[in-house]
Amino acid sequence: MMKYGFMKYNKLKILCSFLLFSFLLLSCESEYTKTVNKEAQKGISKDSMVLGMSFGDTKQSFFDQCWKLNNKGLVTQGPNNRSVQYLLNSNKEDKNLTAIMMLFYGNFNENNIMTGMDMEFSYKSWAPWNDDMTSENLVPVLLDTLMNWFPGNKFITIESDKLNKETHVKVDGNRQIVLYPKDIKNVVVKIEDLKYKYPEKFKPANP
Asked: I need a labelling partner for 24 at 20 to 30 A (CA). Which of 5, 78, 131, 135 fits?
């Protein structure tokens, strides 16, 4: 009887230890990882990006769309012909002074399919002596702008070891948006299709 009770006690002790370990493991999981896992389980596709472009577009369709936007006077060629330039305004009163410049270019895989987009924002009238137009002041404006463009989950703030700076991340389904200040002038925004980054998590739905 004592032996049975001892074995039962050991099993209970092992079970408690396992549950405690699982709890600690779960607690150590970052908010970012929890968010990605939660969105992956939803099985929702969020493929839209900006200016009528989406994940899955071909490189040629990207160029065609930029050409159409250029003909409408909405975009121009970016610096050194390495990006496309689009001008937007913040919500401040003086639109001329607070115009925001967006440079963007698509990311493509080996099959020339768009899997994301790199963007860089700055105030058009930025100058080293304009303290109101630094990237630090631009970040909250862009966070609001992106929330308007992409409603859904809010941005979470993480500390990136690679970037060594405060980074803002928003995940909706398979679409991830990362925002961080690059330097005193520019703010980087990256839109990424997590189906390519985490294919084991974002598996295609069964037909």
From this structure: 5
